[in-house]
Amino acid sequence: MTPLLIALQFLTRLPVRLPGMPEPRQMGQSLLWYPMVGLLLGLLVLGAAFLLEGRPALLQAALLLALWVGLSGGLHLDGLADTADAWVGGYGDRERTLEIMKDPRSGPIAVVVLVLLLLLKFAALVALLEAGQLLPLLLTPWLARGLLPLLFLTTPYVRAGGLGQALAEHLPRREMPVWLAIQAAVLAVFGWVAWISLAVALVAFAWIRWRLMQRLGGTTGDTAGALVEVVEVVVLVAVAVLV
After folding, report:
1. Where are the alpha helices (DSSP H) in 155-220?
2. Contact, 84 vs 103, CB < 8 A?
3. Left (φ > 0), alpha (ψ -120 to 50) or beta: where does 155 sit?
4. pTM above 0.90, yes or no
5. Which terminal CB of the chain, N or C, has fewer other CB atoms within 10 Å?
6. Ramachandran category for residue 101: left, alpha or beta (phi over 0 → left; psi -120 to 50 → alpha)
7. What one-character-per-residue DSSP string does 59-108 give?
8. What's the rounded Cα separation, in Å, for the pair 113 and 23?
């Protein structure tokens, strides 16, 4: 149970307490639970949407987005902000990009990117609610966090120290591909919306990974957070456009 608790404590702001200091092996195993944590977040957001049914779509979307951000504590938004600042300020240089990413302060680029991303998420939620399409509220957090193990499985971790390195070094490489394939198979049961969401998410993942390998030669914790946010907004917008 400890790997699950680690995943819940790290990816959410749910009141979870670990029984003690986790071992590095347990840190790596926690990646197996990331998709399930995403599914839990999706269920909570979907449940809130049912409770808000009948309210104005703009109000519903605003409350759901606030809940969505609050449940994760803005963890991935922070990673996106750091990545955006570093990507622009790094001028294509790997070492400069990594150095800027360490700075906890947010510059104007980070603020602009966060505002645009949240605006797009809000607009997509409004469109989905007005169309009566609630399934993406379940699928999107699930998909985005399910791609994190894939990122660590296929991409070198380039920043020494910290949680990300422990995850990368102790990732259960034998079990992970099978577990991810099972997740994809379960997703397929949800029909065409799930198929489109999965296809869009995988295309976004491939493009982001390619850019990370070009600039950094791998990933960091911040870029992993940025991946979650970008995949979420791309999937929401794509499905909202197609419904």
Report:
1. 162-169, 175-188, 192-215
2. no
3. beta
4. yes
5. N
6. alpha
7. HHHHHHHHHHHHHHTTHHHHHHHHHHHHHHHTTT-HHHHHHHHH--S--H
8. 36
Q: 15-66, pLDDT tens digit by residue?
A: 988 877 778 788 889 999 999 999 999 999 999 999 999 999 999 999 999 9
With the CA atoms of 65, 75, 98 and 88 taken in that order, what torsion angle do they form, in degrees rounded to the nearest 10?
A: 10
* Cβ atoms of residues 61 and 48 within 8 Å: no
Report pLDDT for 227.
97
Q: Two tokens at 168?
A: 């990368």
Please say whether the beta carbons of 222 and 200 come within 8 A.
no
Three-state DSSP class for 3?
A: helix
Taking the C-alpha atoms of residue 75 and residue 13, their distance in angstroms, rounded to an integer, is 9
Place of tokens 């995850």: 167
* Buried/exposed 179-212: b ≥16 CB within 10 Å, e otherwise: bbeebeeebeeeeebbebbbebbeebbeebbeeb
Q: Which two tokens stand for residue 201?
A: 């998410």
Residue type, 38: G
On the question of pLDDT at 163 being above 80, the answer is no
